[in-house]
């Protein structure tokens, strides 16, 4: 909870110098860590596709396991490159030496459980300048019983975790977990180069969506990753032994390595629970400038 401590100190010590010191300390730690990381080399094909002023939006047929039943719905993955301000830890509004280039992935899942709906969204920011783990992940779940919000912020060798929930047993919490690879960053890494994915035994933090839906302890779990080439793509899978859970992603064989489908399977109170997403349609467009009602037809093309 290093950054939370710095915020608390800044409140207690109200001089201008305290704010400057806090920013300086954070910058120094970030700089030292950056120096230890290996550069990430992006080929021209990647740059031509991802730095063209557009986002990639893909819609998926969703089959979501919840409360022991299968629920039909829709999922959307939005990939886009942008500058990330490492001090404020948000998308940068202006050029700054504190910015890092990242690929952001926003994922939504919408489905109904009986009378009431579920809406899930996560945002993951993965650096494109260094071989690094996600520097920020946030996830929110809204349904008629209430809503939850969880966020991981990378800080040196740990993630600072913030959790807010309508459940009394969770309500509000702040803690740290080991800074290792995260499940939420896997789809982004696959878009860079599926053949470079880590395989074998590794430590992995499960997706924030899974952690909140199943109320599982947030920590780094032992996992085993596998990669193989199949007839019509690549398949990357991870098995968590302790959680009795498997995830898998299928991508194209050629750049930009589109995510064709994904799967999650785990033991749910003694019964197998399986959730899947299957690609419907992909659009490359600057959606943030398409707010007018005349652009609603694009939702039709995504079958949303």
Q: What does this entry look like structurally?
A:
With 304 residues, the chain is of the alpha+beta class. 19% of the residues lie in helices and 49% in strands. The chain has helices spanning 2-12, 16-35, 44-50, 186-192, 208-214, 297-301; strands at residues 55-66, 69-85, 90-91, 99-113, 116-127, 136-143, 146-155, 158-164, 172-178, 181-182, 200-205, 221-230, 233-240, 245-251, 259-268, 271-285. The protein has a 16-stranded mixed sheet that branches. The chain starts with a helix and ends with a helix. Residues 6-15 have low confidence and may be disordered.
Helix content: 10-25%
Order of helices and strands: HHHEEEEEEEEEEHEHEEEEEH
Radius of gyration: 20 Å
Point out poorly predicted stretches: 6-15
What composes the largest sheet? 16 strands, mixed
Could you tell me how far the N terminus lies from the C terminus, measured between alpha carbons in angstroms? 40 Å
Decide which structural class fits the backbone: alpha+beta
Mean pLDDT: 91
The number of distinct helices, counting runs of at least 4 residues, comes to 6
Q: Judging from the principal axes of the Cα atoms, what is the shape? A: globular
The tally of beta strands, per DSSP, is 16
